[in-house]
Each structure stands twice: as C-alpha cells, then as structure tokens.
Amino acid sequence: MAFIDIVLQPPSYGWKNAEGELIKPKPGQIISEFFSRLNIFADKRNWLPFMSWMKVLCMVPFLYLFIFEYFTLWTLLAAFLYSMIIMGTHGTIWHHRYCTHGAYKFSNGFWRFFTQNLTVSMIPEEIYVISHHVHHAKSDQPGDPYNAQAGFLYCFLADVNHQPIAKDLSEKDYNRVKLLMRHTGVTANTYAQYQKWGSYINPGNALLSWVLNWGFWYAMFYLMGGHALACCLFGAAGFWAVGVRTFNYEGHGKGENVQREGIDFSTKDNSVNQLWPGIVAGEWHNNHHLFPKSARSGFKPHQVDLAWYYIKFMNSIGAVSSYKDFKKQFYLQYHLPYLQAKTKSEKPSVTVPASTVLQ
C-alpha cells in the first residue's frame, strides 16, 4: 500500500467499508475510541495524544481564575486578542505553512526556535504535520483524518482518533516520517525508540519543551501584568486549543458543498474561504488548498493575512531566507479567467433575424 495510506493509525471502526465508502461512526463509537486511545495504562504508546489533552486540562484552572478572579474588560480584550489572533496566526505561521508545507525557510535555527515558541505551546507538531499531509492527499475522501462528512465529533476528536502516526511502521516508512519532520527542528526518536514509544518525538524531550515553554511565558506575562494577565492569557491559549479543533469541520462546509462561485476556486474538495478565520489567522482555506505551499493565502485585496505579514517582515530583517508566493498564479490561473468568463457571459446577445440567415 502507498505510504500515505498507512502512515496514520487507523481507528477501530476503519476509514472505509468494503465498497470503498466513508465509514461514519456513531457518536458512541467515536467517544469510545477517544478514551481508549488516551489510555496510557493499556498502551504507553498512547502518551502523545494523552499529553496533548493534558495540556488542555491544565488550562482549566487558569481559565477559572481568569473568569472568577481577574475578569475585567481589559483582561477580556487581552484574552480575545491572544486566543483569536495571536494563537490563531501563530498556528498558521508555524504548524501550517512552515512545519507542514515548507512554504518558507528560516535563515538559521535561532529564528526557527524563536518562531516555534512565539506563543504558549499547545499542539504537538508531529500530530499536526503528518496527518495534514494525509488530509491534502485525501481531502474529503475516506482516509481524510478530519473528514467533515463524518460529522462534527469525527473532526473535533480527530487529533486522538485519527491523526497520530501508526505504531507499526517499517523502518523504511518511519524514515519517511522523519523526512517530513526533520526541517521542524523537533528531535526524532530512533527506530528502536519509535517502536517503544510509538511516536516521532521522545516523551522526555516533549515534556522538557512543555515545561520550558510554559515556564517562560508565565514568567513573561507575570512581569507584564501579574497573575491576572498570566491566568488570562494561559486560559485564552486553552480556549484556542479547544476551538481550533472545530476548524476543519467548518472549513470544509460542515460536510456539504457550500462553495461560492468567484470566491472558492478549488473545486476538488469542499474547502471554503471564511471571512473570520481569514482575518484573524490568515486561514483562507480554499485558497490554501489551491496553493498549499504558498506562504501567502490572502490573495485578494480584502483577504487580510497576518501570517503572511509576519513571514514577509521576517524576510525583510533576514530571519526568513526565502518563501513561496503564488498570488500571481492565483490571478492568472483562476481569478482573471473567471472575471473574463463572467464579463463575456453578461454581454447582451445579438439576435440575427431568420430572414438574414436564409439569404
């Protein structure tokens, strides 16, 4: 089988039935799969998705303190900006455009590390990157780890149920995983370590990175605004980590084809350009599916792209050495031909009298 078909650990209910159709599990099946895959006592190789959700649970006390102890209009504004814009944009910059698609390159490891830790760490690179390659290869088809056609819960719990890498890869296939991840700077397990832990990253390294990142950012937020600001922004980071798990369901039309002519040009899948995710995180999703390796997805004048502005700025100061920008290709291949066809179809037709034709 092709690498893309086996790289992810299949759920117990499978990807597709004997006829090749998408299996749409019932909510009970999805929830049962979720908890079985978080069970580190049954299989210690479940540690990575377990740690990912532990990060979310660890944010609950911060969110509680923010709401019931430190809530003001100013902390509410700070939480909104941090969760909706800063965390969202960073996810697009780091996990999406760099780690997965390599849309730009850093000049050196310092700037890569700087960008990686620009916000409170919530999502493991490994879970996001490998599964996202599969998503693009099988978008809205059986095997897509967050196929919106299977429902909201299928997408929302996908990071545990569908996105972790398979635990039984051959050494050759595991080396292909390493090739997809090595530019991220995340240290890889050896094949023997992978067989023991079932992951690309070692749990010791993951735990150390978690502690150092959270420790640094709590200290910075505390120095800027005391426990009030620190609890506010950590709670906001947890809120974002839950909210981002809903994106692909919304970004693929909730399983329906709701694409709009002249707005969504990638018609091979159900991805759509949404105004809110576009403005706050540069996530113009249909544009991205047209040109996944582009460092810019906001091609039209109104399509604000904060992630692109960061990448462009980093390039201007020498931190980013190169990037790919497909704006011109978008206009030449899709937008201008659409406008020309629309203009042509709107021109009034000239009716030639039948007598003239017969002469």
TrEMBL record:
Transmembrane segments: 47-67, 73-94, 216-242
Any one Gene Ontology cellular component term annotated for this protein: membrane
GO biological process, one term: fatty acid biosynthetic process
GO molecular function annotations of the record: oxidoreductase activity, acting on paired donors, with oxidation of a pair of donors resulting in the reduction of molecular oxygen to two molecules of water
Subcellular location, principal: membrane
Pfam families hit by this protein: FA_desaturase
Keyword check for Transmembrane helix: yes
Keyword Oxidoreductase carried by entry: yes
Keywords: Fatty acid biosynthesis, Fatty acid metabolism, Iron, Lipid biosynthesis, Lipid metabolism, Membrane, Oxidoreductase, Transmembrane, Transmembrane helix
Domain of life, source organism: Bacteria
Family according to the record: Belongs to the fatty acid desaturase type 2 family.
Protein name: Acyl-CoA desaturase
Natural source organism: Dyadobacter psychrotolerans
